[in-house]
Specification:
By secondary structure, the protein is α+β, with helices and mostly antiparallel strands. The protein is built from five helices and seven strands; from the N terminus they run αββββααβββαα. 40% of the residues lie in helices and 21% in strands. Strands 4-3-2-1-5-6-7 form a seven-stranded mixed β-sheet. The N terminus is likely disordered.
Amino acid sequence: MITLISDHLRTTMLTQWLNEAKLDLFGSAMVRNATTELNAVLCYQVDSSDLFIWLIDSNHISHVRFSEQSLKEECRNLKVTPVELLKALRESVSSKSATFTKSPTSVVVSFSSSQTGRIPLELSPKEPKADLVRDLLLAFGRSYSDVKQELDSAKSTMEESAARVFTQSAMLDTEHRAPKKKAKTEPGMSVVNPRSRIVKPARGVVYSDEEEED
């Protein structure tokens, strides 16, 4: 998976919350609209000091940006702790259980948490600035590259393990294979089939000279 927060960011309350919630630097999942069949991509991104949450559909990009202080204030309004909110975000991305609703003035994403239930979070429907979109695309690119590298490494390891197991199995099979015993041929028994007695060929009727004179 992507490297944990503490390896990249200076230690702050925000990074402590992120680490306690076991949240990676980047994550994404397909989510559904609560009232329609429309789908969108929900993703989050952590940079040097802020947490971004994005919702991307076919029409536009909605987002919210949290600093340590603004995240604390938002959680106070939602009556949850920052760690509970971040855990709900992680669980929703992992299980793809988040939903969203849209109106002309707002976009609300609801996270699912086993501890706190549904947590609604309002995102700004305004289009983000170009530099924020650039950072989001870079995060997508790094995430894809990391995941592909991990998959390639796992595939190579599995192939090597399978080849090693096959070789070891073949060697064990050869070592433990019992040599065939040569069948012992008893006197008067067939060499081809040791269980069958040799049948002497018939030689016909033999007449003596005396019988011919009579």
